[in-house]
Design goal:
Length: about 350
């Protein structure tokens, strides 16, 4: 038995934030000192490394569970199912619902329960729960759905990835320009044909790597030190990703019994364009092959890094032919992969 994605949907907020919108920010070093160069230099360097030109922020009156609800409605409609037949709602996020202007995260009840309520699902046997797995959360949710379905515990699951990272960033940290908001959702069911999930790989590295991404105080020493924001050790994450993600992808591919030339597209977490390109080059180098043209669809240039939402949103855009010069066909082999806080790494091979 295999499982497959029978419905996909995403919610991309309408509020567009360009790099130019950060021109008047007061960016500081970690020790609170000023940069030795102007913001236009900071922004140009940022774009050159990350590839990000724009990002999307949620409308002020929406929270992460709202975005997830919108994406879930689209996935349910795309799958043409009755939501009452969903056995599990698995909601991957990192910070819960954070209201605009608030410093507090709200996770009671669970965001999955909130989505179930918004969908007006009456069936009490539809179990709703959240997972915290960093940026690889949606992929991990798919793997959990796979386990539920193969064990006979479920026939149909709704797997969601949603986040409003714009609500937890330090305006004085240049890394704040990376993050964005969005949601992606998918209906997962058993497959009775050749399509679906073929193999997977997942792991948590928590010895030296656990705190590469963390919650820390603002770089502005005048702000309340007890108010926390998302922080990261960028260089360490970059090196970690290069050392672990290509190997995980290779192991995953080997488990599927397929070869490197069978892979048509790689859908990787939209974290940083240069890092993603380096991961793909390292992956193909492990196989002694050059990187094929257009193997890696990208959405980060316009949408930024929306954490758990990037991969399902990318898949949705790809299916709907909304990524320039990128198409997929029935039977194509796709490799999904992600890396993020935890530090967690995962991947799966999928026949479309």
């Amino acid at each position: 038995m295999k499982i497959k994605i029978t419905g996909i949907g995403s919610y991309i907020p309408e509020k567009k934030i360009s790099n130019a919108d950060f021109s008047n920010h007061v960016f500081l070093n970690e020790d609170g000192t000023a940069f030795g160069y102007p913001n236009d230099v900071v922004i140009n360097k940022f774009k050159g490394i990350t590839g990000i030109e724009k990002r999307r922020y949620a409308e002020d009156h929406y929270s992460s569970s709202d975005l997830a609800f919108f994406a879930s409605q689209k996935a349910i409609e795309n799958a043409k199912i009755d939501p009452e037949t969903i056995d599990y709602i698995i909601f991957a996020h990192n910070f819960g619902d954070v209201k605009k202007g608030s410093i507090q995260s709200d996770m009671i009840p669970s965001l999955a329960t909130r989505v179930k309520h918004k969908l007006q699902i009456k069936n009490p046997k539809c179990v709703a729960y959240d997972i915290l797995f960093g940026c690889p959360g949606w992929i991990e949710g798919v793997l959990q759905a796979n386990a539920f379905i193969k064990s006979g515990m479920a026939k149909r699951c709704l797997v969601i990835g949603s986040e409003t990272l714009s609500r937890v960033v330090d305006d004085h940290d240049r890394d704040s320009m990376i993050y964005s908001d969005g949601a992606g959702a998918s209906i997962i069911e058993a497959s009775d044909d050749e399509s679906g999930l073929l193999s997977y790989e997942s792991g948590t590295y928590a010895m030296d790597e656990a705190n590469f991404l963390y919650f820390g105080k603002s770089y502005n020493p005048e702000l309340d030190p007890d108010t926390r924001y998302i922080k990261m050790h960028g260089r360490k994450i970059y090196e970690f990703a290069l050392n672990t993600v290509p190997a995980a992808m290779k192991n995953c591919l080997e488990k599927s019994g397929l070869g490197i030339d069978d892979v048509k597209k790689i859908l990787i977490h939209q974290a940083n364009e240069k890092m993603d390109e380096a991961i793909i080059h390292r992956f193909y180098k492990l196989h002694g092959k050059p990187v094929p043209k257009d193997i890696m669809p990208m959405s980060i240039h316009e949408l930024g890094n929306s954490s758990v939402a990037t991969v399902p949103t990318l898949f949705d855009l790809l299916i709907r032919n909304e990524i320039k010069d990128q198409t997929i066909s029935k039977g194509d082999i796709l490799l999904f992969a992600s890396v993020g806080a935890g530090m967690n790494v995962n991947a799966f091979i999928y026949r479309y």
